[in-house]
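Complex 729.
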Amino acid sequence: MAKMTLQELRKLRDSKKTEIQKRDLSGKETQIIVGMGTCGIAAGAKNVLDTFLTQLEIHNLNSVVVTQTGCMGLCYVEPTIEVIAPGMPSVIYGKVDAEVAKKIVEEHIIHKRMVSEHVFDRPSVDIIKDGGK
Amino acid sequence: MAYRSYILVCGGTACESSKANAIYESLLNEVDGQGLSEEVQVIKTGCFGFCEQGPIVKILPEDSFYVQVTPSDAKELVEEHIVKGREVKRLLYDKEGSKKHAKVEDIKFYQKQFRIVLRNCGFIDPENVDEYIAREGYSALEKVLFEMSGDEVIQELRTAGLRGRGGAGFPTWMKWNFTKQVKDADQKYIVCNADEGDPGAYMDRSTLEGDPHSVLEAMTIAGKTVGANQGYIYIRAEYPLAIHRLEVAMAQARDYGLLGKNILDSGFDFDIEIRLGAGAFVCGEETALLASIEGERGMPVPRPPFPAVKGLWGKPTVINNVETWANIPVIIMKGGDWFSQIGTHDSSGTKVFALTGKIRNSGLVEVPMGTTLREIIYDIGGGIANDKKFKAVQTGGPSGGVITEEFLDTPIDFGSLQKLGSMMGSGGMIVMDEDDCIVDVTKFYLEFSVEESCGKCAPCRIGGRSLMNILDKITKGNGTIEDIEQMKEIGHAMKQASLCALGQTAPNPILSTVKHFEAEYLAHINDKTCPAGKCKSLITYNILPDLCIGCTACARKCPTAAITGERRQVHVIDQAACIKCGACFETCKFGAIEIR
Ligand SMILES: Cc1cc2nc3c(=O)[nH]c(=O)nc-3n(C[C@H](O)[C@H](O)[C@H](O)COP(=O)(O)O)c2cc1C
Ligand code: SF4
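Predicted structure with iron/sulfur cluster bound:
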């Protein structure tokens, strides 16, 4: 990507925003976001990420993307992950190890059932969501 | 098929004890009874962190938040909310009760946290600039480059009332203004202080790891505002992931023309370099930090002149803390007025704390200023772990002090913590329970300050060491009653005569604990006992003959073979051989080991 002008930056922002919104509402794509701050990694997030990748391969789930993010602040239940699946509210899971990761793929992603005992909540509202104004 | 609704029942330890299980069962029954089990899933969750109002039930996708639910409410919740689609008003959390701190309309009030600094942490991929941009990233920079004058930016910060988050709480707009007003400088600098050396603190690390662009954007904004073209981020080498994410972010920003020459075709140049620190605590002090960037030994120098007018290589330099920086884009985006409504009159905005120690839900919390310690510890933190008794909470790290039960309802801001003899500091918050010895904890902090003292000035170098010697004496049972007065005297002298804030604040942990926990010091001094059972010289491990069944478990664990006894016979500890490691205490299943 070359250097941008103001107009190009605004255009990029708008297109990225629509992309994210689409995914939130009707998109076909499922997203697994793994918390990969130092705390998450220390608690085994890397292993969890790898488990997701192998499980998705085993189940042949090609439309699921796995990405990373920083710390959500829930240190007492690291590793934490978020699953955004079409037709379901997005969910934060905590205390995720390889076993739980497998369950999440089988239950949440394939059968659209949340995995009990591991659901947590974002600690705060999102101040950016409504356009940041 | 996906479910139509999800009923989440809080299964955290605190809610669990207030009948969450029974609620879960009755909800399951109701859903079954209504023939809805194909459409509605009932799930047990982890702790929502609002335990005071528990048990909590949340229904998705509406995101309805029900509090103090009882098993008998299950029928109504299912019939009304699920079947008829009407929220059960009487169980919804009463929003009125908690409006006192955050006046902003759109806050979901059941959540005591409010995230400005951590707005993107846990939302975006920190290594993908597009995600930052999609969440309004770099739109504050747009404004500053194309719509606002430097004075307008400073005015906005002034209206916001933002104070530095690195410890001292100095108004940010004033710093920027001092630097801006220097007219005859051929160069000015912008510096980010990411040294973060307090034990127990990791707020800045997490911010940089989760949202590096927010700091880059803010520094560029400052550059444009005060007329600087070069920035430095001073970060400790022990933070490899944060450094990596910063490097990735800087490369992407340069690629997009958001950093470097002619930013967004505005004609403004600004670039940033990373400088690694070796992890000396004193290098977080601003003048020592600047010396370290210059390649000198990191030692504080007297101020004034302040860095704002004479800083890096003698040039005017704005230096701010990571968390201070992360607030800036939001203030520009949403306006100083918006920001000033959050928090208290004395301190606006939020503060990030690293909540650790004997707490159930440890973690990184961001709350509006003015939130009470009780709310942080009990509502967000879920209370003390293992149902132990709260003893004190330590804020401000080695520069701060302890706060006891009676002051837990103080709204936190810069002023109120100082009045209590503690400090906001950078945001470490360590909770202690009845098993922590106050003298021992104080010794830990003092030891830290003494080790990290740069040794330049005598009050800190010699005073700190003398305090250390006295504390050591007390924990060994050799203290005298005069020691307390002497510690106070040395402490006050250090406060007044030390060159930098390290020495000036190092006695705070002592002064504050001597005040609030005098009895515990006296127990060490007069009775030669450690009430919490921590100070090794003052305790002995003994086996209670009535409870010992002679299982031999402790004898097998003891590393020095100090425990003897036949199988099924009462065991004895040879006090001369005992090194007081506590292994027997941990091992005994019958509570037969006593600490005296
Ligand atoms: C011993 C000592 C250590 C410090 N460590 C840090 C630190 O790690 N991070 C930080 O931002 N400020 C630290 N400070 C405070 C800085 O000197 C300075 O006040 C701060 O960087 C200013 O930024 P702010 O106005 O945004 O708070 C320290 C001060 C002292 C005396
Ligand atoms: S107070 Fe301590 S750390 Fe600060 S300059 Fe003096 S000796 Fe160095």
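Residues B 282, 300, 453-457, 460-461, 498-500, 502-503 surround iron/sulfur cluster (ligand 2) (CB under 6 Å).
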